[in-house]
Request: fold
Amino acid sequence: MQLRYQFRVYPTPGQQIELARAFGCARVVFNDGLRLRQQAREAGEKYISDGELSRRLITEAKLTPQRAWLGEVSAVVLQQALADLNTAYRNFFASISGKRRGRTVAPPRFRSRKDNRQAIRFTKNSRFRVLDNGRLRLPKIGDLAVRWSRTLPSDPSSVAIIRDAAGRYFASFVVQTGEDETLPPVKPEIGIDLGLTHFAVMSDGTKVAAPTFLRRAARKLKRLQQDLSRKQRGSQNRKKAVVKVARAHARVADTRRDWQHKLSTQIIRENQAVYVEDLCVSGLGRTRLAKSVHDAGWASFTAMLEYKAALYGRTFGRVNRFFPSTRMCSQCGRINDKMALNVRAWDCPCGAAHDRDHNAALNIKAAGQADFNARGAHVRPGLVPAARNEAGTHPDAARSTRSVEGISVLQGGEDVNTSVSRLCR
Reply:
């Protein structure tokens, strides 16, 4: 399995200038490639191949006065920018042809220097390396100071340098992990019902309160947004206010991510099998509960459970989105009428008294175990975490990165954000 380990880096002012130059060159090459393919399509010409695009926009462009400054950065950075463009096109083609599941992927768009997130990538071909003193040496940039929070399990195959909206810099390493991470087997299995009043209700009766990180920071965010709205557009004070707002949002996201990591790790360590409901986060994000849904972060939490289960040798399953876990009695199996959201407890004609969420967790566990035993495999198995082939430009590489606190799983294929909600029942 390949994982992504992310660490904070602290470039010097001179290195920040070199990184800004690399960000700009990669962005220009990406936009030039996108523009060239769009012009070829409008002119009725055939699709420009990846090799032809690289020859025109990198090799030959460096020899022209208009693009001679592309030679000031590592060629690998430019090649990886075109690799990202090629991947975006393949994902788009696979989506409209039906080969890629999930929502339709939009065609590539032009990158802007005003984008909140700027990133470049170095592969082994660039000869980047981690020095004995802990610094990260990058070609034509220098030795970056890294704040190491853990050791890398193996030599990284690539590293991405990221600058976020808050002005922070990160180094994201892709490493290969072995099977030595597998935990010893345990007996408990658990079903989890995710919600808003309680973030998670377990089939064993455990209830985890919803932390509501965004709502707790709402007062400070409101004040910062008001300060931003008073600043004149284009002024330096407005730029400073934008960074303050971005830092406040980053603090909320980091706190939520850290809390979800701790909870998901505890669940995976204590249970041999974990079953969750297949929620439609994107659908719920368009309802009156949108703010609370996004604040909960169900999709990122289930993604953590999924990749950690694969990493530590546990079973993870998603129960069918149309399974009536809330309305079904966990004692007799009777399916009752639809219930409003304010009904938190109900009695079954068989005599059983149910807590709404605990009953749903019991049903999710039972359905997950039944489906797993019937198939002999995971319930609706997700795609196996696969390598993001960043050392080359494999033509079939359809990739997506899920960021998690210092570690993120690299998977191809469909988005983990699932598609139907409990509100529909």
